[in-house]
Automatic annotation (TrEMBL):
Residues 559-887 form the Peptidase M1 alanyl aminopeptidase C-terminal domain. This is Aminopeptidase N. Residues 48-188 form the Aminopeptidase N-like N-terminal domain. It holds the Pfam family Peptidase_M1. NCBIfam families: pepN_proteo. It catalyses: Release of an N-terminal amino acid, Xaa-|-Yaa- from a peptide, amide or arylamide. Xaa is preferably Ala, but may be most amino acids including Pro (slow action). When a terminal hydrophobic residue is followed by a prolyl residue, the two may be released as an intact Xaa-Pro dipeptide. Its EC number is 3.4.11.2. It comes from Turicimonas muris. GO terms for biological process: proteolysis. It is an enzyme of class 3 (hydrolase).
Amino acid sequence: MSNRQTVVYRKDYKAPNHDVETINLVFDLIPDRTIVTSTMHVVPREGRESDEFELNGESLQLVSIKINGQPSLTNQYAMNAGKLIFHSIKEPTDIEIVTRINPKANLELSGLYLSNNNFITQCEAEGFRRITYFPNRPDVLAKYTVTLHAPKECKVLLSNGNLVDQGVLPDGRKYAIWHDPFPKPSYLFALVAGNFTVNEDKIELNNDKTALLQIYTEPGNENKTVHAMDCLKKAIRWDEVRYGLTLDLERFMIVATNDFNMGAMENKGLNIFNAKYVLADDGVATDSDYAAIESVIGHEYFHNWTGDRVTCRDWFQLSLKEGLTVFREQEFASDMLGSESAKVVKRIKDVRALRTAQFPEDSGPMAHPIRPDSYSEINNFYTMTVYEKGAEVVRMYQTMFGKEGFKKGLAEYLRRYDGSAATCDDFRTAMAEANDADLSQFALWYSQAGTPRVSVKTQWDESKKTFTITTRQSNRTLPGQPKPQPLMIPLAVGVLNDKGEDIPLQLEGEPLPVGTTRVLLLNQDVQTWTLVNVDRRPLLSLGRGFSAPVICDMDLTRDQLVFLAKNDSDLFNRAEAFEKLSILAIDAFIQELRKTQNANSLSPMEAYLATFEEILNDERLSPAYRAEILKLPSEQAIYESQIIIEPALIRAACQAMQKKIGQRLKTSFEDKVKTCTTEGIYKYDPDLAGKRALKFLSLSYLVASGNPKGVQQTRNFFEKGNNITDKLGALSIAVHSGLPIRQEMLNKSSIAWATEPLLINKWLEVQALATSVHGEMPVVNKIRSLMMDPLFSIKNPNNVYSLLRTFFAKGGPEFHTLDGSGYQLWIETVLNIDSFNPQVSARLARTLENWRRYEPRLSSMMYKALRYVSQQKNLSADLREIVDKAIN
Ligand code: ARG
Ligand code: ZN
């Protein structure tokens, strides 16, 4: 286990002294004592600082070293703090290093480990050093040849690139030799060995070559890869059509495993996936899972160009590949959705995730720029900021230059840096030069943390027919950072007249209007734009499509919000306006509860309910869109709107409001449950998924209002549903609403789902979101007893995320109990997991980092829990960084 506590700074970057041109790896795969023989051809770099050749190593047993075929002398190298340093490599040199490792004891799931007795690797970010000594940094690119020796029961032996040879060794074991023609950093190395079945297909590429596509899964899952294969083919085609980027390999492989710390990994030619992002059929995957699989398959495939062909110079540049690839993934997923209203639902969901998870990160103790300046453990920086805010920053180039301009910039970037390791500045410069633009100010997006605020004021001069828009940016000052500077912000706006129509936008000095949505490019603290020929009362529609990752403040009255929610031609902004209205309504319930502890007398204002009803019944809007916008804002979204977070009050307000809405719109909801019930065999399709979403949304309001028919229907969807979306949708409603039938449903599903790891995770997650019922066991205790259930394993990251992370992050008042029992569970599990898997314990621990924002009774206990953990000795570097930043 790594206990390094050193902080690494971006400013300290130094180029390596040596290149490794080729590496030949031979693995003798034995679960508890694998022998790795690495032979590197090491070449000194021109202009190097010294002749020292530095390699990293962790949890390795060194067996032997040879230099140019001769056993090395101990004065030729030194071992020190995880580093192996050869003192003087002045000439091209062959170095052979033999190490011994123990995959079976590797519970960190970093490096080479076992999953259900199969060998699997995960090398990003620094897992390769747990396999062999190597300059384990992304700017050392080598060509790999890999030989695998394995017991004869091992059916499948895989590594990156092309299969050169395979067969049986004289002693009866099996072997395979792989060669990857593309130079790559060590974090993209992968090997897989074990018992798998494969689903194969072929695809014709636009260069007239044919590529073999393979998806490997554990036996029994062969019929669950149809969707993933379809997504892979769509992704390959999309990258050809949209960006002219072709698959550069003869063979592209995906392997699914149940033991994985993160989502998936883009190893060159051999992607390794968390099984939940591969396997799908009507019995294990919900509509949302189908959509997530499409996104993640796309994401990892797109890395082949943005990540693998051009990689990152150092880990501070992580967003170079991740922000860009998330953006590409989002564009792909959106293009796969037929209608405009389906596309906008995807955008609404992505922005909601950004606001409820990235915004709090960016205002809390872990706030960092998308290109961080320092870290103590890089695995802690695979964050919403680097990924999702990074993607928004990339999207702004497209907003400024259009799709064609963006494509030109991307092509220029790939042309300049193909086969090498680049920086975020390199990307920005390529974009700027391809589009003849000055993007020096745009660089601030990479160096400034915090969510910028833009407050906007408008003024209509009826006699002059002018409409002025004044913007004022403000960026939060963060400790240890220079005073924030104004950013370059593309702000898309439209203007509605009093009939709710978009008006043509003509800026002062322009001969003619230019469109009805325009991008204002902010670049100073305060700026003013004047629109002319505005002859009817105007209303600004601000930040259309979420054109920049900022918080826009504009004082809008309830009436104006209602007007926008009903009329804005920008469907994204309609959803925005409605969400603001919902928050206002919930706020009223919160105030009422604070006064009287009983919100039953209150009802949301008429205009809100009328708008709700109008949208619910507006057949011109897709069911998916209606389902998304009429969902109450998540509790996390409400937390973001509050100065002090009071989980119990917020939950009570939501419940009271849901109940009122359910009572009031009963007939419409009943109608939706009927008309949105999809008949026949299950098929994943965004339109049908939208209907199912609207059906369950309606059902949840009905059940919240105590409607007996709704309860009966919930039971029916669970019993009779022919797909997991229906069954799980019903189960979640029952458990979250604490219905009496819930225990029976949970028992039935634990029996029916016991052999499917993916379903066990769902079963755990549903229970993490449970609501306590008076007189029964509190949810915290229920979670404790689930941890003892044979279906739960604390060693499995998916189980931990589903049960514990969900509970800590979204359990609301069930987790934030006044007796501190939730925090006690947090302490115990975080410390327990840290003793074997620091990446997972650190991710779990982040659920308390925003403790300062909670009501005092809770925040003092949250602080104590963090401090207690931070006082323990032997914490991993990962967990140490999280808890220390949280309390200091
Ligand atoms: N590069 C992967 C992806 O986003 C993420 C792998 C991160 N793994 C880790 N242990 N930090 O597709
Ligand atoms: Zn990625």
